[in-house]
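Let us work through a complete example step by step.
Step 1: write down the sequence.
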Amino acid sequence: MPSLREVQRSFATAIVFGDNGAIASLGIVPGGLGADERIAVYRNNVLGNYRKALAATYPVLQRLVGGRLFNIAIDAFVRGYPSARGDMNRYGGELGRFLSFYPPARELPYLPDVARLEWAIDQANIAADAQALDLATLAAVPENMLGELRFQLHPSVQLIASPYPIFHIWQVNQTECAGDDRVDLGEGGDALLIARGTSGVTVERLTPGAYAFLVALARNLRLADAVERALAAEASFDLSATLKGHVAGQTIVALRAPPTSQPGISA
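Step 2: predict the structure and record it as tokens.
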């Protein structure tokens, strides 16, 4: 007799993949509907729930490809990247990766990055809060130790770069957009900061230097290394203005200094 775990696995395989062997192993007693038809009822409900949940996360993507093609893609995505947790708010982050290899999406090469942007906005909206960093704390760090600082970004911060104008694509596909909805893919790519502030989630275009700088901080690099990467990306990078602006805007919410730092500064 199969264990409960084996029955559950067969049931999930039958629903998601329509596997005939899995359906047969369940030993469903024929009645008014055959085993395939009974399982299909569950399959339609399960896939329908995934479609609705991901349509709420990816409304621009759905608008770009249309409802029918979106549903087909989501069904294929669910089969390729089954959920590993019960929280639907955290499911769907691999859709951008999936679209990079999904043959029907090849004619729209910007779709994976649009999906990544929508996922970033969705996750920024539900991320944890964090207290702001006091500029006085930063000012108290001795100048000779500044290069050793490591910074923590707000939990909602997401950083995305794309060779396509994905922010423009996203903007013209908002329901409130009443202007010209045409986008020239040749207008250039985007380096974006997505974060949640007091007014909600915002999307901001970054200069190459600022983007490289924040990515380095997100990777827990020292300030000196982050500045080096920023200057390599943009020779005119202004550390003082960038650092102050992102502390004031709460992109940066904490700092860590070496253990030899002054009291009151987190080590």
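Step 3: interpret the result. Residues 261-267 have pLDDT under 50 and may be disordered.
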